[in-house]
Each structure stands twice: as structure tokens, then as C-alpha cells.
Write a structure and sequence with these properties.
With 424 residues, the protein is an alpha+beta fold. It is built from 14 helices and 17 strands. Strands 2, 3, 4, 6, 7, 8, 15, 16 and 17 form a nine-stranded mixed beta sheet that branches. A four-stranded antiparallel beta sheet has the order 11-13-9-14, with helices on one face. Helix 10 runs antiparallel to helix 11. The two termini are 16 Å apart. The relative contact order is 0.18. The chain binds (2S)-amino(hydroxy)ethanoic acid and manganese (II) ion (MN) (2 copies). The site of one manganese (II) ion has 4 residues, from loops.
């Protein structure tokens, strides 16, 4: 992939990029190096306001769609040319890290500023985007699914974060459920989507490699499992007479790990929350609501693991004389990235003299939503210790700058592909 010399020489302004990153990391900061910016909460909305100010200050066109996705647009191509999207998400998990999502949004903004300042013309227009609720505080991949036109009504009926949190968040942000379904883009208007993200694992750091060329993104499936027993007096009910919902939930959490370790070595399962009801020291739990999520890189394992886990939940409930209520909360399928995007990322890394390796990711990303309507690609940079979704999340700044330069150079290669009519 030859990119003309002027474009080959473009680099991000590392100091400006760093100033943005440090300023953004202060919004929702938890004081221990992390951030707490759950989607459409006060801190997240403040981060979006800050982003809007940076977009306007850069002289870029600011846009918000009816799913709340915030964008900067640079019209560096013909009026009717498709948009090449670069982006990620500003929302975080509760008490998460300051790199997850934020790094990709700021690198996208920086890429547009560099191309704008260079005054170059491309065969595409560029858009830097911050997607709403990537993390699933509300639904998960909400803004990107809305933009891709794949958001399902069912996903809003029993969202992962619960109806109340969703309704409050939409109201706080001035969004409506109906509006979510009006954010879909015409696939012909999108040239491709590229995202810079921290790896959130330890493959790159263990291998001493700077850039990850993402080949596939894990499928994620979520269920709420309610183990139903009988509340009773914790002091006067004999141990044999109890229908203790906690026993079923606890034994299932252990069993889920066993199912994966024994039969699905490339998959993961997580019991991320358990809510006890009535929930008091002196009451035998009558009900335990358990949050189950599991992930796989291929559809076959994804389907078999789902059946194996649900079957085991039934067995553990029966074992303790409990009922089981199963609520499916939605999924996104295992998603390969586009070969042309992988090539553009690898070529960009090589042109910058950066070590790089192809790898799958166990984390979910907005790119999954867009895979059905345009070519998608992801650039990873190393996570020290593999830590993420935690204040311990850390990536060396020089790796952040390298990743942003790879994103920029990969975008220029993809733009050229579109111009040559190859990125179909
Ligand atoms: O959960 C994930 O994999 C992503 O960080 N949203
Ligand atoms: Mn993320
Ligand atoms: Mn995340």
C-alpha cells in the first residue's frame, strides 16, 4: 500500500494529544488513577461537553446524532464522499481505567486535526466519533448499534443495566428511545471504521510488541439467572429444611468456571454480580439474581458454551431444591475484522518501524456493531500487566503516541483504498 510522501510523513502532535488525555482523565477521576464515567451519568456528560469544546476549538464540525453519538467531521474529500470513521467511547465501567475508550476517541480527534492542518485532500471525509454506552452500563454497544441500524427493540426491554438506569440516562442526556432508532446511517455513507484501543490483556506486553493488529473480536452473551428458594428465619430453620437460593447461585458460579476450564479452553465466563433478596443477616436468601456473561471467539463454541452453562444452571438449582428463572439480556456475535483493515494497520506499523503482531481480542468493542455495514479494523497498544476495567489500567505514553500514529497512517491507507475502489 503506497501512500504519497506528504501523507506518509504525517504524525500526531504528541504534546497536544497528551494535554487532551490528561485533561480528560480529570473528568470523573476517582483519585487512584482511574475514572468513573458510567454512560450518560454526570461525569460522562461532562466529558462529552469537554470533547465538544475541543472539537469546536479545533475548527472541526461538531455533530451529535439521536443516539447521542458525538462526532467531529472533517470535510477533506468530495462533498458526497463516504465517511471514514475513527473513534471509540468516553463512557467507562464503574471505577474503571482512564485509557479504555478515551484513548481511541482522543487519537481519532488528533488524527483529524493533523489532516486538517496539513490541508490534504482525500477520497473520503473523516469523522472522529465517541459512541454512547459502549460498556453496557445501560445496554452495551448502544450508540454503535444504533448508528449501524442493528439496535433491537428487545435490547431495550430488559437491558443489562436495567430499565430505570436506561430511562434516567436517556432523560439526563435529552435522548429518547425512539431517537435511538433514528440514528442509523446509510451503509453507503461509510467507507470504514478504525479504532485505537488498549489491549486489555497481556499478549503485547509479554511479547514486548508495540502494536496489535486485531484479527477478531470476541462474541459476548449475557443472562440474568434468578435462583429461587424460600426466605426463612436464619436461626430457627434447620440446615436440612432450607431452600437457600445462595447455595444454588454460589455453586453455579463455581460450576461455570468448571464448565469453561474443562470444555471451552478458549472461552471465558464471568459471574459479575449477585443480588440477594431480601438480603439480611438473619434471613435465609429467598432469591439470588446472578449476572452471567460468557465470551468466545467462534460461533460454534459460543453456541455450545451457552447450552452447557444453562444446562448446568438447571442442575445446580435442582441440587438445592430451587427454582430457576432465566432471562436473556442480549449478545453480540464473534466478529472478524476486515482483511484490508488488518493490512492497513500492519502496513502503517511497519512504515513507522513499530513491532506488530496479529491477535484476537477477548474484549468487546464498538467495531463489532459496524462490521455488518463497513470494513472494520482495530489497533491495539500494550496494557501494562494486562490490567483493565480497573484504576490499575496503564499504557506507556510513548505506546499511546505510537498507536495514534498507526491509527492515522492506517486511516490514510484505508482512504486511499476507498479512492482506488478497493475497500468494498
Ligand atoms: O466488556 C468489554 O469487553 C468491553 O470493555 N466493553
Ligand atoms: Mn473499550
Ligand atoms: Mn471496557
Amino acid at each position: 500500500m503506497i501512500v504519497d510522501d506528504r501523507l506518509m510523513g504525517l504524525r500526531v502532535d504528541a504534546e497536544r494529544f497528551r494535554r487532551d488525555f490528561e485533561a480528560l482523565s480529570e473528568i470523573g477521576a476517582t483519585g487512584d488513577g482511574g475514572v468513573h464515567r458510567p454512560a450518560l451519568g454526570e461525569a460522562h456528560l461532562a466529558a462529552r461537553e469537554w470533547l465538544r469544546d475541543r472539537i469546536v476549538a479545533a475548527g472541526l464540525e461538531f455533530r451529535v446524532d439521536s443516539a447521542g453519538n458525538h462526532s467531529a467531521v472533517l470535510r477533506c474529500g468530495p462533498q458526497e464522499a463516504p465517511r471514514l470513521l475513527l473513534g471509540s467511547h468516553l463512557d467507562s465501567v464503574p471505577h474503571g481505567g482512564r485509557y479504555d475508550g478515551a484513548l481511541g476517541v482522543l487519537a481519532a480527534l488528533e488524527a483529524l486535526r493533523v489532516v486538517s492542518a496539513a490541508g490534504v485532500s482525500l477520497s473520503v471525509n473523516l469523522e472522529a466519533i465517541d459512541f454512547t454506552d459502549e460498556e453496557g452500563t445501560l445496554v452495551g454497544l448502544l450508540g454503535s448499534a444504533a448508528l449501524a441500524g442493528i439496535l433491537q427493540e428487545a435490547a431495550l426491554r430488559e437491558p443489562r443495566g436495567g430499565r430505570v438506569v436506561l430511562e434516567e440516562g436517556l432523560a439526563r442526556a435529552g435522548l429518547t428511545e425512539a431517537g435511538l432508532f433514528q440514528a442509523a446511517r446509510d451503509p453507503a455513507s461509510l467507507a470504514a471504521y478504525l479504532e485505537l484501543h488498549i489491549e486489555q490483556g497481556r499478549r503485547l506486553v509479554d511479547a514486548g510488541v508495540t502494536i496489535g493488529v486485531v484479527t477478531s473480536i470476541a462474541g459476548i452473551n449475557s443472562y440474568r439467572l434468578d435462583f429461587v428458594g424460600e426466605p426463612n428465619h436464619a436461626g430457627t430453620t434447620g440446615m436440612e429444611d432450607r431452600r437457600d437460593a445462595a447455595l444454588g447461585a454460589a455453586s453455579f458460579a463455581l460450576a461455570a468456571r468448571e464448565v469453561v476450564m474443562d470444555g471451552f479452553p478458549d472461552c471465558v465466563a464471568n459471574v459479575g454480580d449477585m443480588r440477594f433478596a431480601p438480603g439480611a443477616f438473619n434471613i435465609v436468601p429467598g432469591r439470588v439474581e446472578l449476572a452471567l456473561e460468557f465470551r468466545a471467539q467462534d460461533r460454534d463454541s459460543f453456541e455450545h458454551l451457552e447450552r452447557a452453562l444453562l444446562r448446568r444452571a438447571e442442575e445446580e438449582a435442582r441440587r438445592f431444591g430451587l427454582g430457576l428463572e432465566v432471562e436473556w439480556l442480549g449478545k453480540c456475535e464473534p466478529t472478524p475484522t476486515s482483511i484490508i483493515a488488518q493490512r492497513a494497520v500492519a502496513d502503517a506499523a511497519a512504515s513507522l518501524g513499530l513491532s506488530h503482531v496479529a491477535l484476537p481480542t477477548g474484549a468487546g468493542h464498538d467495531a463489532q456493531s459496524l462490521a455488518g455495514i463497513c470494513p472494520i479494523g482495530m489497533v491495539f497498544v500494550p496494557s501494562v500487566d494486562g490490567a483493565s476495567h480497573s484504576p490499575r489500567e496503564f499504557t506507556r505514553w510513548e505506546d499511546c503516541v505510537s498507536g495514534a500514529n498507526v491509527l492515522l497512517q492506517a486511516a490514510l491507507r484505508m482512504a486511499q483504498q476507498v479512492g482506488a475502489g478497493a475497500a468494498g
